[in-house]
Each structure stands twice: as C-alpha cells, then as structure tokens.
Amino acid sequence: QVQLVEGGGGLVQPGGSLRLSCVASGFTFSKYGMSWYRQTPGKERELVATITNIGTSTTYLDSVKGRFTISRDNAKNTVYLQMNSLKPEDTAVYYCNVKITSWSGVIDYWGQGTQVTVSS
C-alpha cells in the first residue's frame, strides 16, 4: 500500500527555517513526481511545490519562490521541502502528495500532514 509519512514540522519564528521530509513506500518512488501541498483552516489545500521523478524540474507557488526548495533523494525514497525565510502566512499543515495513474484516472495519495507554525 502507498504510504507517505511527513516529518520535520514544528514551531519556528519568522525568518527561520524548517526542513520537511516525506518518506514514501508502497510504490516505485523514482517513477513518480512528488508534490507538497499545504492547508490552513477554512482554506483550500494549495500546491506549494512539485518535483519531477528524477528531480530535473521543479515548480513553486509564487508566494514561496526563492524561499522554498523541493528536492528528493530517490535512494532514500524521500522528498524534502526546505523552507527558509518563513513567514506567518506559511503556517499550515503541509502534506506530501503523489499522483498515481490507474484505469479510472489519477489517484491522489496523501501523507498524514505535518504542522508548520510560524510565529513570534
């Protein structure tokens, strides 16, 4: 079964940094692009960053460009989100995501989420 386990969240002051990790299992990690999403109460989950299966291309939400970096280590089945210069508006639950195709289309798999709180 597909499993995504996030970690690395926590409480950090504005301007600080956190490094999130997502350890994947249950599928061939190196064959799939990975994404990070985030969600705050009352707001739709938003795509933060994506990375292709071998890490050759990345995309970012405009508001995090230049501050966040998504990366992956396929040997460790892990995708990371390095978050620098954190702002209070970055506060959210961050979720790891993989989209896997099936006969019926694309299935989204999600981790349990890790809370990131940016506050002074």
Describe the structure.
The chain is an all-beta fold. It contains no helices and eleven strands. The strands form two sheets. Strands 2, 4, 5, 6, 9, 10 and 11 form a seven-stranded mixed sheet that branches. Strand 7 and strand 8 (78-83) form a beta hairpin. The chain starts with a strand and ends with a strand. The model has no long low-confidence stretch (mean pLDDT 97).
Oligomer: single chain
Mean pLDDT: 97
Helix content: under 10%
- SSE order, as H and E? EEEEEEEEEEE
Beta-strand segment tally: 11
Q: Please describe the biggest sheet, giving its number of strands, its sense, and whether it closes into a barrel.
A: 7 strands, mixed
The low-pLDDT segments are none
Instruction: Work out the radius of gyration.
Output: 14 Å
Shape: globular
Distance between the termini: 40 Å
Number of helices, where a helix is a run of at least 4 consecutive DSSP H or I residues = 0
Taken as a percent bin, the fraction of beta residues is over 45%
Structural class: mainly beta
Quick take:
With 120 residues, this protein is an all-beta fold. Helix content is 0%, strand content 54%.
Task: Give the topology.
Blueprint: E1 3-7, E2 10-12, E3 18-25, E4 34-39, E5 46-51, E6 58-60, E7 68-73, E8 78-83, E9 92-102, E10 105-110, E11 114-118
Parallel strand pairs: 2-11
Antiparallel strand pairs: 1-3, 3-8, 4-5, 4-9, 5-6, 7-8, 9-10, 9-11
Supply the key terms.
11 strands; 120 residues; mainly beta
